[in-house]
């Protein structure tokens, strides 16, 4: 129908010759056209060429097309005014007729414009043809790309072109309102490289749906990259004069289409909303289910059934849990986040991150949907036409209010709990208000809000070996950042003061006492020094020469002034030279400052003194200490969790390197270069913190293993017997063992003890009889003890007094 419309126009115009009559006639057509539309109830030309999909025929769409046509007419009138010649119409008639027919019939274009200033126009056979296809998920199916490409191929063949496979550019499920598209970006890049010079598009709308993008893009392709563009559907060929007019008309139509579409989508959603169906705005805790039998009420090819909201029981349970934790059990949001991550709670279908985080929980705690109030359309998208970027804007409440639904059947949380949660959230946000910036982001810690900044020797230097995240400063301790959210399982933390002291002490040991390391550092410093010596003074000499040259030039200029014949541009020349001199002088000062050495090569004493200074620096809790430490160690301090025997808690082991090279660079202010012989010292420190219980447990186990009875351990530790038993039980459990039966051990120990005791207690009685010259046998018989015990007793008595133990045989002889 389009060509009929143009025919009508052009016939009339061909009779006229002045612009004034043109406009008058244009106005006449407009009235005719409006009459036609109202009579037919349709647009006067077939829309099938660009309405790909399910454009709904609603009242609004008609008015939309009406406005399009009016716009087209204004454009046409503009063109007429510009040229004011019937010859314009002559080509319009020819071209438009041709182009509209060209959809079915690929005729040769009658008037081909010579491209640019190309002197040697290549044959069509030598042309490299490409095609671009795109579909946006909401409207089209996957096979539409193939269909578009097929159309392009057909058209190309009829033009004597062939499109090679690698020049078929596509963008899948990307809106034409977006400027940044992967396939399009590649197309433009390769067009600028000259990989092709003819581009086939199924429709102009594939290129863009926004007229402010379409035309510049098309013009860039045609004029900058010298690519001939052919739109199959609209019959646009950029080699035909006047293509811009048709292209701009169509670009406006395509843009209007997307606007109408979004409006009809909105209308459809509003209708679904009123009927109580799902519009896909359900959040965590809910889902949607199709209602069988609702397919018929929808139009379109693949109509899907309507859906209704349902409660997802599993997720809903987590929602109630979160509310209970927060309101009834008084957990903080951070603790809830940790628990959710640790218990591997499922997440919202829209969630972009794997883990739970603070804002998600706050979002759940403040979502009114959980008490059955379902708002809709509180925000609306605002698209930047030039970039296609979307921003959300809050819709006025009186506008979105009418869409709010009351759904008591979807209630998960009772109102009382919800209100309590809001109160707590409000109190919380009030508390943190002063720590937030204007846009609500936290300001971050400052020296006023906490004491963290004061301790910053290790700032940004500790990393978790497991997850690679930095250890952060909780105030007094360092802990893995992800452990806070319950994602990393390195939950061990260390006291800042201890870590700092241990690291500084160990570094001190090395840089002050390690002779081998010192030698390396000295060698490295000397190497750097010599390398620097040879480099920097040469640069200084060069700059000095340049400076003296500039000075000479300035003097010469001044001489000319004194001679009384100043050239016209003297001032500007003088100024230029002065600027040059200033720049050179600055560079020189910079170079000289860099060259801080005092003329002497560094020696051992010099290095020793510097290292001592460095060590003193490290002991300060200032940013300079942090800087000094960074210069010393290579990379980060990697913290790893380790088990310690007999300890319930794990400890952290820190590993880092001290590089002799970076130390010497730092000390001498050299630019670090990494080609020299590198000597780094691997250091590993176990940050073990011992509590009293830990030490007690260790001592107890040690004494136990040495065979001491538990009561002796109790005395040594100054604790009760039960405490000792507990400690020993713990010690065995930590070793993965079970503490042996106490009675059995006691019996073994007691046996030994009793024997000891027996010979000791009877010693006096034995010695009394011993002195009365009784035989060992008689003594044993009289005292009713074993003969061996008698021997022991005698031995014991003499040993106790430091006397020689009598020999039994010689005694017997005396008797
Ligand atoms: Zn970690």
Structural account:
Helix content is 53%, strand content 11%. A hairpin with a 3-residue loop joins strand 13 and strand 14 (477-480). It contains 29 helices and 18 strands. It has 815 residues and is of the alpha/beta class. Among the domains are: 286-297 and 306-372 and 407-435, Alpha-Beta Complex (Hect, E3 ligase catalytic domain fold), CATH 3.90.1750.20; 513-687, no CATH class; 692-739; 757-814. Helix 26 (763-771) crosses helix 27 (776-783). Bound molecules: zinc ion. Zinc ion is lined by residues 464, 466-467, 469, 480, 482-483, 488, 490. Zinc ion binds at residues 464, 466-467, 469, 480, 482-483, 488, 490. GO terms for molecular function: DNA binding; DNA strand exchange activity. Residues 285-431 form the Recombinase domain. Residues 110-120 have a biased composition (Basic residues).
Strand tally: 18
List the total number of helices: 29
Low-confidence stretches: 1-24, 30-61, 80-122
Helix-strand category: alpha/beta
Shape: flat
**Beta-strand percentage range:** 5-15%
Mean pLDDT: 77
Portion of residues in helices? Answer: 40-55%
Strand order of the largest sheet: 2-1-3-4-5
| Cα radius of gyration in angstroms | 46 Å
What is the CA–CA distance across the termini? 150 Å
